[in-house]
Amino acid sequence: MIPFLSLQNTNKPYHDDLKRIFTETLEKGWFILGQELVTFENRFASYCETNFCLGVANGLDALTIILKACKYPPQSEIIVPANTYIATILAVINAGLKPVLVEPSQETYLIAPNQIELAITTNTRAIMLTHLYGKCCEMTAIQAIAEKYQLHIFEDAAQAHGATYLGVKAGNLGDAAGFSFYPSKNLGALGDGGAITCNSESLAQAYRQLRNYGSSQKYVFDEVGLNSRLDEIQAAFLSLKLEYLDVENQYRQKIARSYLEQIQNPSIILPPSNTIDEDAWHLFVIRTDNRDKLRSYLAENGIGTDIHYPIPPHKQKALSEFNHLSFPITEKIHQEVLSIPLNPTLQELEVEYIIEKINYFNG
Ligand SMILES: *Cc1c(COP(=O)(O)O)cnc(C)c1O
């Protein structure tokens, strides 16, 4: 059986170091807002080539804090992809703002620049984009639009640790970026975690205050903030795992290359292959008209898969005010996508086996 993803396996190479870090943290007895957090923040900022990084409790909070710090008038419009994980949209709602959903390009699954421009009104303040599946959005076109209409760009980089766009790291492609360290992400903690990266010192200071109850100094509160901090122990685990992120991403790229070169089946559409070495390959997502049949066929052959995602955000009960909207490309993508195993613990023979089985599939 090849599982879609085994978190037991992904953490196995680091067991000895993780146990040592646990013991050290336990003995030190400092658990929140300490030296381990500062160390990780400095390392992750330097990894993303940004001036600042602020650890927070999770990816959703990272995005929410980024938007709250802007102090836009209530109900300002924020452009978001219709084709994204729901957190991107929830962050806008949490911040008291209005998400305006925009269709993706059918080839990349990423927010389509020309559709962004059509959605802009006098109330639009920012574009919050998602580098979905680990592939960066079309930043040259999006940056030109943002400049023309004086909009901020924020990145949902929760699936894109280490991805680049024309050599620039995800996290450094807009005004600020939110990352998640949920255990299954390319850089995953042993629990929840997140971070914000940015280059502006005043934004960094605003995020630092918002994540800690809106507190400017101990027991002094300047605004209504969140309790959203990255624990010392998670920060220390992440500092360790960050050292291996590039090697793991390179291995992901190698598997992606094998899939792209060797999966040949007329009933299956592969993801874009033009930027293999820039993508973080958080997920390898294929498409077919016959998704459920392919999924059960692979399961019968011992191959675990997952669907990212089965129901589009605008069709969720939680977002009932958007249920009447129609986003045909987003809906089609949600009906057809299937994620096949791609992770740093997948063996070469397993990759070959998966390719062989997919090529034999009779769609
Ligand atoms: C995982 C994820 C998030 C949310 O991260 P959490 O840490 O679970 O809050 C946000 N956006 C995208 C695209 C994600 O994949």
From TrEMBL:
Q: EC class of this enzyme?
A: transferase
Give the Gene Ontology MF terms in alphabetical order.
transaminase activity
Q: What is its EC number?
A: 2.6.1.-
The UniProt keywords, alphabetically, are:
Aminotransferase, Pyridoxal phosphate, Transferase
Positions of transmembrane segments? none
Top-rank taxon of the source lineage equals Bacteria
Report if keyword Cell division is assigned: no
Q: Which Pfam families match?
A: DegT_DnrJ_EryC1
Q: Which family does it belong to?
A: Belongs to the DegT/DnrJ/EryC1 family.
Protein name according to UniProt: DegT/DnrJ/EryC1/StrS family aminotransferase
Which source organism? Flectobacillus roseus
